[in-house]
Automatic annotation (TrEMBL):
Compartment(s): Cytoplasm
Subunit details: Homodimer.
Coiled coil: 63-104
Annotated protein name in UniProt: Protein GrpE
């Protein structure tokens, strides 16, 4: 090898050595930079740990917020249930009141239809009494038979009309005194025929109108014995 070839070869080797040294220097710089970011082999792990803690704190915060919302929703739901129960109770009371009102109205309507003529019948009772008194007086006075029979026929027609409307005479003589049906105006000495508390005589007839006493009978009641 000549001297020129030897110098050329030496120059190439020198250049190659410089390039490798520069590459090694660049890798070392990169390594140093990496160590600076992560001073130890666990550098990236610490960052991950901090992130997990933050996430855990955030998750705990979210959980607390969620539980608070659940509690608030439950409270609103309980209140809504209570309101619903109150409205349901109010509805049931109104329904019961309406049913009672409808039942009372129906009963009043039925009673009104049943006893619509009660007032008129009561006003006609004195007329019926006078007919009966007149017949008794005419019989005692010996009135003519045709006159007596004519008045009796009118009294019977009048009585039949009232009977069709629901008027019925009360039985009194021989019955036990009943303050609902009888009005005691006299008392007599009790005997074997009329023991104590038994009606002995009827002074004025009493009447029922459709099972309702509209006038009690005036009676004489046996007492003592």
């Amino acid at each position: 090898m000549t001297i020129e070839e030897r110098e050329s070869k030496k120059s190439e080797i020198s250049e190659m050595t410089g390039t490798e040294a520069a590459g090694m220097t660049g890798e070392a710089a990169m390594y140093e930079e990496a160590v600076t970011v992560n001073p130890s082999t666990g550098g990236e792990g610490d960052t991950a740990t901090l992130t997990d803690e933050d996430q855990a704190a955030h998750a705990a915060e979210e959980l607390g917020r969620f539980l608070s919302e659940v509690a608030k929703t439950k409270e609103e739901l309980d209140k809504a249930k209570q309101d619903l129960q109150d409205w349901e109770n109010r509805y049931l009371r109104l329904q019961a009141d309406f049913d009672n009102f409808r039942r009372r109205t129906r009963q009043e309507k039925e009673e009104l239809g049943t006893y619509a003529n009660e007032g008129l019948v009561k006003k006609l009772l004195p007329v019926l009494d006078n007919f009966q008194r007149a017949l008794g007086a005419m019989a005692k006075a010996g009135a003519a038979d045709n006159l007596l029979s004519g008045v009796a026929m009118i009294e019977r027609q009048f009585s039949d009309i009232l009977t069709k409307e629901g008027l019925q005479p009360l039985e009194a003589v021989g019955k036990e005194f009943d303050p609902q049906s009888h009005e005691a105006v006299l008392f007599g000495e009790a005997d074997e025929v009329y023991p104590d508390g038994i009606v002995m005589e009827e002074m004025q007839k009493g009447y029922l109108f459709k099972s309702k006493v509209i006038r009690p009978a005036m009676v004489k009641v046996a007492k003592g014995g």
